[in-house]
Amino acid sequence: MRSPLVFIDGDQGTTGLQIHERLRNRTDLRLFTLAAAERKDARRRAEAINACDIAILCLPDAAAREAVDAIVNPAVRVIDASSAHRTQPDWTYGFPEMAPGQAERIANARRVTNPGCYPTGAIGLLRPLMQAGLIPGNYPISIHAVSGYSGRGRAGVEEHEGQGAVNAPSYQVYGLELAHKHTPEIQQHAGLAQRPIFVPAYGAFRQGIVLTVPLALRLLAPDVDGATLHACLARHYAEAAHVRVLPLHESCALKHLDPQALNGTNDMRLSVFPNVEHGHVLLSAVFDNLGKGASGAAVQNLNLMLTQQ
């Protein structure tokens, strides 16, 4: 029996390069990419995607839609790492730990959309708490996240590692219009009744993310506290291989969060920081924006899909 043919379309960007690196020594699949001279040839790209078993799209949104439209072979399965299809109902959301049965849905899906890097942390924290009724659907959620500059793609890497790197900013908050393209994705898959306020930033480090969500206990049910929120997350991820909820005694001992702590892995660490005196709780997620936030997640989804290939 032949091994599945996996085609990476757009393997020269930050996500595609890391997917290629993670897969290149695999013996259970055949990996295919286009030569440089063929990458902009629409006919050749269409031939390639229709000849593969699973296509991984590491493309801008418009190009990802074009690639999907070019598929005429019904046997081709797709993992889209762009944001083009993340809120589309006919695509399976590629966050295996998000809900019971989600890994099985991904394994059997024809079309899987990789989660965004920031949404992975936000949804990972919020969805279990929303579904358990511990946070009201109309709670005024605010999210702050700091990513490594690779989150900007090749432009960010060039700014910080190219000839003008000495002039690169050490920190910059962006998305000041409060219209970041990840916000609808967060709202939909976290189960929020209203749009959250999402404020992203880039730091002067290559990769890694710290994402935080502050909560005021006075806006929750009277019996909900930090321990309740932590217990819910711990139960939800008890069997998850790639998501760990830090025990409360360990989180209470922390003095800072390092966005680079899990770089090079496909893991995500969730923490709960309660302040009993002031009635506040801080939720946090730490993970690699190119790991669990992109390339690692794509490979995790690929592995699930290969079980049904």
List keywords for this structure.
NADP; cytoplasm; seven-stranded mixed sheet; 13 strands; 309 residues; oxidoreductase; Dihydrodipicolinate Reductase, domain 2; six-stranded parallel sheet; alpha/beta; EC 1.2.1.38; Rossmann fold
Structure in words:
It is a single chain. The chain is of the alpha/beta class and 309 residues long. The chain has 2 domains: 5-115 and 294-306, Rossmann fold (3-Layer(aba) Sandwich); 117-289, Dihydrodipicolinate Reductase, domain 2 (2-Layer Sandwich), CATH 3.30.360.10. The chain contains 10 helices and 13 strands. The strands form 2 sheets. A 7-stranded mixed beta sheet has the order 8-9-7-10-13-12-11. Helix 9 (248-253) links the parallel strand 11 (243-245) and strand 12 (268-275). The chain starts with a strand and ends with a helix. The mean pLDDT is 95. Its EC number is 1.2.1.38. Keywords: Amino-acid biosynthesis, Arginine biosynthesis, Cytoplasm, NADP, Oxidoreductase. It comes from Cupriavidus basilensis. Belongs to the NAGSA dehydrogenase family. Type 2 subfamily. The active site is at 117.
Derived structural class: alpha/beta
**Number of helical elements:** 10
Shape: globular
Gyration radius from CA atoms, angstroms: 20 Å
Give the SSE order as H and E letters. EHEHEHEEHEHEHEHEEHEHEEH
CATH superfamily assignment of the largest domain? Dihydrodipicolinate Reductase, domain 2
Strand content: 15-25%
Major β-sheet profile? 7 strands, mixed
What is the strand tally? 13
CATH fold type of the largest domain: Dihydrodipicolinate Reductase, domain 2
Ends distance = 11 Å
Major sheet: arrangement of strands: 8-9-7-10-13-12-11
Which parts are unreliable, with pLDDT below 50 for 5 consecutive residues or more?
A: none
Structurally, the number of domains stands at 2
- Helical amount: 25-40%
Mean pLDDT: 95
CATH class of the largest domain: Alpha Beta
Q: Specify the CATH architecture of the largest domain.
A: 2-Layer Sandwich
Protein name: N-acetyl-gamma-glutamyl-phosphate reductase
Organism: Cupriavidus basilensis
EC number: 1.2.1.38
Function: Catalyzes the NADPH-dependent reduction of N-acetyl-5-glutamyl phosphate to yield N-acetyl-L-glutamate 5-semialdehyde.
